[in-house]
Structure formats: structure tokens, C-alpha cells
Amino acid sequence: MKKIICHLDMDAFFASVEEQKRPHLVGKPIAVGSPIIEGVGRGVVSTANYKARGYGIHSAMPIMTAWRLSEEARKQGKDEVVFLPVDFALYNKVSAHVLEIIKKYAALVEQASVDEFYYDLSSAGSFAKAKAICKKIKAEIKAVEKVTCSVGIGPNKLIAKIAAGIKKPDGLLVVEGKQSREFLNPLDIRELPGIGPKTAEIFYKQGINKVGDLLAFSREQLKDLMGKHGESIFQKARGIDDSPITEFHEVKSIGGQTTLNENTKNPIVVYDIFKKLSDGVFASFSNGGFSGFKGIAVTVRFADFQTQSSSKSFKEPLGVRDPSTSLRTGRKIFELEALRLLLPYLDLQKNPKSKPIRLVGIRIEKIVP
Ligand code: TTP
Ligand code: MG
User: Fold this and answer.
1) Is the distance from CB of 351 to CB of 310 less than 8 angstroms?
2) Fewer CB near the terminus (10 Å): N or C of the chain?
3) Whose CA is nearest to atom 29 of ligand 1?
4) Confidence at residue 287, expressed as pLDDT on a 0 to 100 scale
5) Is the minimum distance from the CB of 16 to ligand 1 under 6 angstroms?
6) 9 known ligand binder
7) Is 146 exposed, middle or buried (0-12, 13-18, 19+ CB in 10 A)?
8) Which residues are designated catalytic?
9) Edge-to-edge strands, sheet with 172-174
10) Model pLDDT, residue 327
11) How many whole angstroms from 183 Cα to the centroid of ligand 2?
């Protein structure tokens, strides 16, 4: 049976969900990300809706750059951007509903991130039939959640994912196996998953811009140029991808980080933020139904952006769900060990120049499923 693989990715996900939750925001430019208080913010944009993207705002842009672009637009008489904080609980809920909808139509579904899903529709028997099913899925998501998504259908995950990105937003694109090469050849090499800005730069410098240009390289040449990634680039440029759809991803770590409202040397302020953060991270862990964890890592970024981490591993898992070593005990040890890792950054031990702190992060690692 011919393989028919689909990739579904929500459009401007966080921003679209926010827009639909508050009807008065519909049609407005929206950026979701770290907070801006009285025109000052220090983090980045998580995402922007397509209207705000028209102002040049995009994911990972410093929030203040986005603010400036919004101010410029406002001075030109356009709508100013609505800045909203991130509400993960809400996006997770919508994400779970989307997964449920897809599961009604496909037996094998992989959730690849909060807003992207792979599913297998080989049993539909033809690309035309798979396309009809995907139209239904799109319509149902739109009806239930009032947000749009883009779907790519192809002979494997690689082609499906690229196809989903081409017609955004609200797109649907089918690329059959025999069309893969002509589909890929004219695309910029950056469209290939795994070719990031640095790798792309190496190729651009040699005049290699399109996926089709990569075909001139032998497997060995690519390995010489790219090391172990060479083989994978060789395959992807030819549209080859055998990776299976895997329903369950093993969660290896859970963490978070917070940029402080202002850089500070005050240990009480740092600890206060750190405590809130670590409570949240532990709550995510305990809600995840895991049986324990064997590592903790703490990150501190100083005002000069120098970033340092410390971690600790445990022989026996903590946070386990059995009466003798209860979750509560696990939590106590977690809090204590996290604090032990943080403290040296609050004095001269790990901060000899007494630099102000800009960001703190904590991660629960080596999670036992
Ligand atoms: P994406 O699917 O990459 O982006 P998107 O859904 O906002 O927009 P597109 O229409 O291009 O798919 O990411 C999904 C969500 O993940 C996004 O809504 C917010 C979050 N995210 C971040 O928090 N930081 C990031 O740098 C990126 C890329 C995404
Ligand atoms: Mg998306």
C-alpha cells in the first residue's frame, strides 16, 4: 500500500487562540510573548498573528523591537499591536481538542509539538481521498476552535511538513511521491528541516541557494562539508525520508525560565521569582504522571548575558509515586537541591564580580517515564 502521510500545523497558533478567545480582538494585530509593562519589556515574542507579521513582527524577536514596530505603525495611522502574555494552559487545551479531532479520522497520530501533528492516511488508498479527509479535519477544527491550520500531504513526513508550510495560512497542499523532486528543487535550502541559518550560510556562500542545487553534491562531498549531517542532507534533498510516525514521545525533561523585570543583585527578589518558577515546573512534572526524575539543572543569566548552569544527578529517582518515598518528599528534596544549585550564584562563589542577574531557569531532567 502506498504511504500517505499528513502534517497539520496550526496557523499563528498562540495568537489565533487569543484572538478567538476575545472577540473584540478579531482582525487586530496581536503579538503573544513576554510582558511589557509601561512600554518596557525584556523578553521575546512567542508568536504574532499574520496582521502583526505584516508589521515585520515574528517569533523570537525582542519584545521591544516589536513594540517599536507597533509604534511606527500607529504613527502611520494603522492599528497598534495588542501585546498579550503567554497562556500555556489555554493553548494546551486547544491542542488536545485538535488531537482528538484528528484521531477521529486517522488511526496513527503523532503530536510533534503543541501545534503540529503527523498522521497516516495510507488506508484512504489515494491522495485524492486523503485530501478530502484533510478538508473535513480542517473544517471541524475551524468549527470547534474557530482557528485555522495548514495541512501538507505527501509520501513521507519530510514532504508533508514542507508542503504544510508552503500554503500558510489556511493552506492544503498535496505532493504525490512522483512530484517530490520537482516540488523540492525550486525551494530555498532553508525549507529543508535541519538546515538552519548557519548551515544555510555555508551553502549560500558557495552559490547553493535552492534544494535542486544540492543535487550536484555527492554523498561524500556533503559529508566532508557537513560532517554527520551530510548524509541526512543528501537524503532530504532527494525527498527521501523513512522516519516512522511515533505516537508517544518520551519526555526527557521539563523546565522553564523567567527574565526578571529588571536586573538585580537582590537575593530575595531572585529567590522569589525562582521559587515561583520552580513551583510551576514541579507542578508540570507532577501533572505529567511520570514515575520520577534523576536530575535537576539550574541556569542563571547575568546582566552581561553571560549564562551559566549547574546540575545535580541522583542515583535513585526522586518524586516517585509510592508511599515510602512520596511525591511530597520528592518535592521537598527538589526544592532544597534547586536552592543549593542557585545559592552560589547569589554570592561570590559563582558570581565573583557580583554581577546583577537577568534571568533564572530550572529544569527537571532524566525523567523516568
Ligand atoms: P509555529 O508553528 O512555529 O508558529 P505559529 O503557529 O505561531 O505560526 P505559523 O502559522 O507560522 O505556524 O509555533 C507554534 C507556537 O509555538 C507559536 O504559536 C508560539 C510558540 N513558539 C514560541 O513560543 N517561540 C518560537 O520561537 C516559535 C517559533 C514558536
Ligand atoms: Mg504553527
Assistant:
1) no
2) N
3) 46
4) 75
5) no
6) yes
7) middle
8) 116
9) 109-113, 116-120, 5-10, 149-154, 172-174
10) 59
11) 21
Residue 322 has a pLDDT of: 53
What b/e string do you get for 155-184 counting C-beta neighbours within 10 Å, with b at 16 or more?
bbbbbbbbbbbeebbebbbbbbeebbeebb
**How many CB atoms within 10 Å of residue 325?**
16
Question: Mind giving me the DSSP string for 259-270?
Answer: EEEEEE--HHHH
Residues of the chain with pLDDT under 70: 249-250, 320-329
Taking only Cα atoms into account, the Rg of the chain, rounded to an integer number of angstroms, comes to 23
Counting from 1 in the atom list of ligand 1, the atom nearest the Cα of 10 is 6
Question: CA–CA separation, 197 vs 79, rounded Å?
Answer: 32
Three-point CA angle 97, 100, 102, nearest 5°: 110
pLDDT digits (tens, 9 = 90+) for 122-135: 999 999 999 999 99
110 Cβ closer than 6 Å to some ligand 1 atom: no
For residue 147, the CA-to-ligand 1 centroid distance in Å is 14
Q: Rounded to the nearest 5°, which phi and psi values hold at 332?
A: -60, -50
Ligand 1 contacts CB of residue 344 (under 6 A): no
Rounded CA-CA distance 116/346 in Å is 40
Contacts of 357 (CB under 8 A, 6+ apart): 260, 263, 264, 265, 270, 300, 301, 302, 303, 345, 346, 351
Instruction: State the cell numbers at 368.
Output: 523516568
Rounded distance between C-alpha atoms, residue 218 and residue 254, angstroms: 40
Phi, psi of 360, rounded to the nearest 5 degrees: -125, 150
- What pLDDT does residue 312 have? 94
Mutate to test the pocket of ligand 1, among 115, 138, 150, 172 (most ligand atoms within 8 A of CB): 115
| Three-state secondary structure call for residue 196 | coil
CB atoms within 10 A of CB 222: 19
The reply to whether ligand 1 has any atom less than 6 angstroms from the CB of 13 is yes
Q: What is the distance, to the nearest Å, from the Cα of residue 286 to the centroid of all Cα atoms in its chain?
A: 22
Q: What is the pTM of this model?
A: 0.78
Domains and CATH numbers, the chain: 5-10+90-237 (3.30.70.270), 13-86 (3.40.1170.60), 253-368 (3.30.1490.100)
